[in-house]
């Protein structure tokens, strides 16, 4: 199939970018979206032009690197799918495809379609861990965790940190990511000792990175490739309120 | 390392994001409950004129009057102030967090009501100011205290003369411009509530994927209920002339008695209670 591509090109975070049009001919519908971009890049290199920079790594939907907004949708038209798992059979001959980077103040563009998601790492550093004793492992069944709780924690832990939730949010809010990373530990017994400190610190880190606030639009959930739900945001809202109250009365650490 | 801050500086946080949302939702709940009570109370407009007039009398003579009413007003005002202050902060920060928009953003989940909260809120705010100037202070578009007289009300088996609220409402809504402004404002309030009422549960952390859809239905039903209740009043006057005969009759009556004489009435000599025209504020 032949495609009209409108791709965001931007030299670095200091300069402003613009859309550049490319005509790409003879794309197989069996190729993946990223392979389609690879083909484009090969042609650009052959012509002596600068290839389009985009993030990717595993190409199997588990690493969270790929990050494209296609025709206004983060990760493209398919639900619960990372863009690396998107195939060209969802497009037809003659389509115009607009490709943009994640857009949020907290995710500055590094080059073309690549953004800096270091802000997520700093949120994790603030509290997305448990302070564990190292040394000999404890017995696996020593801590009993009810199945529904373990399942819920696993659902939260499915977040691959791609940032699509921020990209899709008109407010550039990182609530879905932060709530998933907060909840995967807050739900489990191992996470309890640091629960209040974690909730307070991760929300504080999220705010200071310049992410927006939640208006409860639900766009984040709709684009999340791992189907993280708004339940975790509600849970974070509860956990944070409890932590604040205990902190006020001097009990939270 | 890789996680070193590339942004210029950490954002100065005025209030934690979640605290702003708690305040938004908390003030929202109180306004939601107030609006329901206010709407149900106003439906007495469809009873005999004495009904809403007596209701107005009671509101202005709550136990502990006049302090009680002022406490309630101050509390509601505080809620509006908090709600607006948070709205301004949130909207400002949210715009800053997305400095550049997509060529054309796609939406899957959010509805029109959710995306227009600031605009519907702003128009509702303008409406609230007009509404208070019209029916509480009674100076817009005319001085009702001068143009509307009194009507009999029965209060604990006593016959009193009290400001004719029913007539004022009919008079106010006889103006098509005002009635239509009220209808538009109520439609926007309905929209604001279809998102707001569902959203406030999420902000306070009491919602899940099962209740999300139920609460959305509840919020939609609530918004429509509020709209129908409030809109029925101006609509009944504008389109069906409700109360116009009564108003004409009363206006003829007031024209015969000079206002000065009705302004102070010895309600009951033994209790030396005076009810003045202006007292109904
Ligand atoms: C006075 C003018 C008003 C303004 C400027 C205003 C503005 C707003 C805005 C911008 C939001 C969305 C906040 C966000 O993005 O998170 C909101 C939410 C809300 N508003 Fe209003 N509003 C007003 C009046 C009202 C009234 C009269 C009511 C109730 C009868 C109300 C009930 C709500 C509720 C329940 C929410 C949801 C809170 C949440 O998201 O947790 N608002 N308002
Ligand atoms: S919550 Fe979903 S969309 Fe957001 S970073 Fe995690 S996997 Fe990506
Ligand atoms: S490249 Fe790893 S998730 Fe898409």
Structure explained in plain terms:
Chain A is of the alpha+beta class and 253 residues long. Chain A has eight helices and seven strands; from the N terminus they run E-E-H-E-E-E-E-E-H-H-H-H-H-H-H. By secondary structure, chain B is mainly α. Chain B has a two-stranded antiparallel ribbon with strand order 1-2. In chain B, helix 1 packs across helix 3, helix 5 crosses helix 8 and helix 7 crosses helix 10. The longest helix of chain B is centred in the C-terminal third of the chain and has 32 residues. At the A-B interface, helix 2, helix 6, helix 7 and helix 8 of A face helix 1, helix 3 and helix 8 of B. FE2/S2 (inorganic) cluster (FES) binds next to loops of chain A. Protoporphyrin IX containing FE binds next to helix 1, helix 3, helix 5 and helix 8 of chain B.
The radius of gyration computed from the alpha-carbon positions of chain B, rounded to a whole number of angstroms, is: 23 Å
CATH superfamily of the domain at 17-96 and 112-146 and 165-241 in chain B: Fumarate reductase/succinate dehydrogenase, transmembrane subunit
Mean pLDDT of chain B: 90
Q: How would a crystallographer describe the biggest sheet of chain B?
A: 2 strands, antiparallel
Bound molecules: protoporphyrin IX containing FE, iron/sulfur cluster, FE2/S2 (inorganic) cluster
Kindly report the oligomeric state of this protein.
Answer: heterodimer
Mean pLDDT of chain A: 96
Helix share, percent of chain B: 55-70%
Comma- or semicolon-separated keywords:
heterodimer, A: 253 residues, alpha+beta, Fumarate Reductase Iron-sulfur Protein, Chain B, domain 2, two-stranded antiparallel sheet, 7 strands, 35% helix, 11% strand, B: 281 residues, mainly alpha, two-stranded antiparallel ribbon, disordered C terminus, binds protoporphyrin IX containing FE
List the helices and strands and how they pair.
The complex is a heterodimer of chains A (253) and B (281).
Chain A: E1 3-9, E2 18-24, H1 33-46, E3 69-70, E4 73-74, E5 96-100, E6 109-111, E7 114-115, H2 118-127, H3 147-157, H4 164-168, H5 175-186, H6 195-208, H7 219-223, H8 231-248
Parallel strand pairs in A: 1-5
Antiparallel strand pairs in A: 1-2, 3-4, 3-5, 6-7
Helix pairs in contact in A: 2-5, 2-6, 3-5, 5-6, 5-8, 6-8
Chain B: H1 17-42, H2 49-60, H3 67-97, H4 112-115, H5 117-136, H6 144-147, E1 150-155, E2 158-163, H7 165-173, H8 176-203, H9 209-240, H10 244-256, H11 259-263, E3 264-268, E4 273-276
Antiparallel strand pairs in B: 1-2, 3-4
Helix pairs in contact in B: 1-3, 1-8, 1-9, 5-8, 7-10, 8-9
The site of protoporphyrin IX containing FE (HEM) has 26 residues of chain B, from helix 1, helix 3, helix 5 and helix 8.
């Amino acid at each position: 199939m032949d495609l009209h591509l409108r791709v965001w090109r931007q030299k670095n975070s200091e300069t402003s970018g613009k859309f550049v049009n490319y005509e790409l001919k003879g794309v197989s519908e069996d190729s993946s979206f990223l392979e389609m971009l690879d083909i484009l890049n090969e042609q650009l290199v052959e012509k002596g032009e600068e290839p389009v920079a985009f993030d990717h790594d595993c190409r199997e939907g588990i690493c969270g690197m790929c990050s494209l907004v296609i025709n206004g949708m983060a990760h493209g038209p398919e639900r619960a799918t990372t863009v690396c798992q998107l195939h060209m059979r969802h497009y037809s001959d003659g389509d115009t495809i607009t490709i943009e980077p994640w857009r949020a103040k907290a995710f500055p563009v590094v080059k073309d379609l690549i953004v800096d998601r270091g802000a997520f790492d700093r949120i994790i550093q603030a509290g997305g861990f448990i302070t564990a004793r190292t040394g000999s492992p404890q017995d696996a069944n020593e801590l009993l965790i009810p199945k529904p709780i373990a399942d819920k924690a696993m659902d939260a832990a499915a977040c691959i940190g791609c940032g699509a939730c921020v990209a899709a949010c008109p407010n550039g809010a990182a609530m879905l990511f932060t709530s998933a990373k907060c909840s995967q530990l807050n739900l489990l017994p191992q996470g309890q000792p640091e629960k209040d400190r974690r909730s307070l610190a991760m929300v504080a880190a999220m705010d200071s990175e310049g992410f927006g606030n939640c208006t409860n639009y639900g766009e984040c959930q709709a684009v999340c490739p791992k189907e993280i739900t708004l339940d975790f945001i509600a849970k974070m809202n509860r956990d944070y309120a409890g932590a604040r109250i205990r902190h006020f009365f001097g009990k939270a650490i | 390392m890789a996680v070193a801050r590339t942004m210029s500086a950490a954002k100065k946080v005025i209030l934690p994001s979640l605290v702003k949302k708690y305040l938004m939702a908390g003030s929202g709940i109180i306004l939601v409950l107030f609006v329901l009570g206010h709407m149900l109370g106003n439906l007495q407009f469809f009873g005999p004129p004495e009904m809403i007039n007596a209701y107005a009398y009671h509101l202005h003579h709550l136990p502990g009057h006049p302090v009680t009413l002022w406490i309630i007003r101050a509390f509601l005002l505080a809620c509006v102030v908090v709600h607006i202050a948070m709205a301004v902060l949130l909207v400002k920060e949210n715009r800053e967090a997305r400095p550049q928009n997509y060529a054309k953003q796609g939406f899957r989940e959010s509805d029109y009501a959710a995306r227009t909260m600031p605009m519907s809120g702003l128009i509702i705010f303008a409406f609230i100011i007009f509404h208070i100037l019209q029916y509480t202070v009674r100076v817009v578009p005319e001085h009702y205290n001068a143009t509307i007289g009194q009507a009999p009300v029965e209060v604990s088996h006593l016959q009193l003369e009290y400001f004719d609220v029913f007539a004022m409402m009919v008079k106010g809504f006889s103006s098509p411009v005002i009635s239509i402004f009220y209808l538009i404002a109520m439609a926007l309030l309905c929209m604001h509530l279809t998102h707001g009422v569902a959203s406030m549960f999420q902000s306070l952390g009491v919602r899940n994927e099962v209740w999300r859809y139920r609460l959305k239905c509840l919020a939609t039903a609530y918004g429509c209920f509020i709209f129908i209740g409030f809109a029925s009043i101006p609509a009944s006057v504008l389109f069906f002339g409700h109360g116009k005969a009564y108003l004409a009759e009363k206006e003829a009556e007031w024209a015969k008695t000079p206002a000065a004489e009705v302004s102070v009435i010895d309600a009951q000599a033994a209790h030396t209670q005076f009810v003045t025209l202006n007292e109904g504020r």
